[in-house]
């Protein structure tokens, strides 16, 4: 009788242990299943932010080219023309501390001629050249100087210049503030998408920044969605950032 009682007790303990084990296994599987479903339910949205900005610095390069029959004459005339250009810049208020003058270059000058209707390059003297790079925070003076340079060209001075580049100094801080705003915009969009389905937007799973655009006012980013755009031709600009964010759905 004692052995039978011990057997019943052992079977009872075994049953309790099995029940506890099955409950624990069911709980673990339930948690895993819930996590798996949660991991599969997500939404991907893009967030956009933009704001007006203004260039605060200008770079402008003026090039002088002297073509003469000999190397000595080319360099001599280049020095004379450089003095003319520097005097012009002084008159425009772009003084010496805003200028950086490159080293002179000297090369053979070639012109194209036709012999029996066949083009060929023929040396005609020498070409000396030099660049003057102007950097200034006075954008108005640089703009006016670029327009007035036509007077030197009209007076047969051998100078050319590309349009000024209008630049923004604090791009990194501008970019960071736009990323924050674009992230907020992304959550607002995600919330709007799911509010009809009785679910809520959960934690962020992943995020990536798209291109960073500096556009002229009213400008379009076009198809360059990866490389970004940096407009340097205008003073008034628009900065734009797009982010892509994946959120869990709860």
SSE topology sketch:
Elements lengths: L1 H39 L1 E13 L2 E12 L2 H21 L7 E3 L3 E11 L2 E19 L2 H16 L4 E3 L3 E3 L3 H24 L6 E16 L12 E2 L5 E14 L1
So what's the CATH class of the largest domain? Alpha Beta
Q: Which of globular, elongated, flat, extended, rod-shaped describes the shape?
A: elongated
| Main sheet: strands, sense, barrel | 6 strands, antiparallel
Roughly how much helix do the residues carry, as a percent range? 40-55%
Class inferred from helices and paired strands: alpha+beta
The total strand number stands at 10
**Uncertain spans:** 17-39
Number of helices: 4
Q: Domains counted in the coordinates: how many?
A: 2
Strand content: 35-45%
Q: Return the string of H and E elements.
A: HEEHEEEHEEHEEE
CATH architecture of the largest domain: 2-Layer Sandwich
* CATH-assigned homologous superfamily of the largest domain: Protein of unknown function (DUF541), domain 2
From the N-terminal CA to the C-terminal CA, the straight-line distance is 59 Å
Rounded to an integer in angstroms, the radius of gyration calculated over CA atoms is: 36 Å
Mean pLDDT: 83
CATH fold description of the largest domain? Alpha-Beta Plaits
Can you summarize this structure?
This protein is an alpha+beta fold.
